[in-house]
Structure formats: structure tokens, C-alpha cells
Amino acid sequence: MKTVKISIDDIFIGMEVSSKRVITESDINDFAKLSGDTNPIHLDENYAKNSRYRKKIAHGLLSASFFSALFGTKLPGTGCVYTSQSLKFKRPIYVGDEVNTYIKVKSIDKKTNKIIFITQCIVNSKIAIDGEAEILIP
After folding, report:
1. Total tally of structural domains belonging to the chain
2. Domain range spanning residue 99?
3. pTM
4. I need a labelling partner for 29 at 20 to 30 A (CA). Which of 7, 42, 56, 103 fits?
């Protein structure tokens, strides 16, 4: 993924970028190894069959991490720092789901070089993860 660096002076309210990614079994296994989250709801099909979801679900923070990729590579890009993120997990995300990740500028504070973004992961035209992030521009 190519990285950009957009000046705070070139960013405006309503500006947005997005990405798409299909969640794979390998993504979930790799995230479990990296994070240490080996909850069987993510890794054990038999366990998941008896859960409210009826099959394994992706880690919520796996999909939420897609926001970080957009911030660091597309808007605002190189050098920005994540300072906060709220998350509401509204729907499960499963293996094979295409996650459409969006970030949209909500407010800009040029005195502090901070931008508030609306953040969403959407699957099948429904919001799966909803939140807001604060990003510091160098």
C-alpha cells in the first residue's frame, strides 16, 4: 500500500477514504497468534456452533485495526499518531465477509493539530463497527 502525507491545511471536514478487505481464516489465526487472544469463539468451529453466532467470528480489533492502516497510509498519512478510538461492535464479522472500512473527517483543530474522524466498518451494507478516532498530525 502506497503511503501519502497530507498537510492539515489540505484536510477538510467531510473528507473521507476507504478500503475493502475480505476476512480470511488465516487473518483470524494470525491475529490470534499476534494478540494472544485465543478465545474459542474465534478459533474453534465446534465451540462457535453452540454460541449465539453459530459460527466463528473475527476478532473485533482485527477489523478495527483497518482504521489504523487508513490513517497511516491514506489520510492523513505518514507521521500521524493515533491518540484515541471509541468502538461500538454492532454486528459480528465472519470468515469470508468483505469489510468496507471508512474514515471521515468530523472536526479539525489546527491549534492542537488534532483531527476527529468518524470510523466505520461496514459488511453487507450494515454497520458492524462504529466509532470515532482522534489523530495527531506532526
Report:
1. 1
2. 8-136
3. 0.94
4. 103
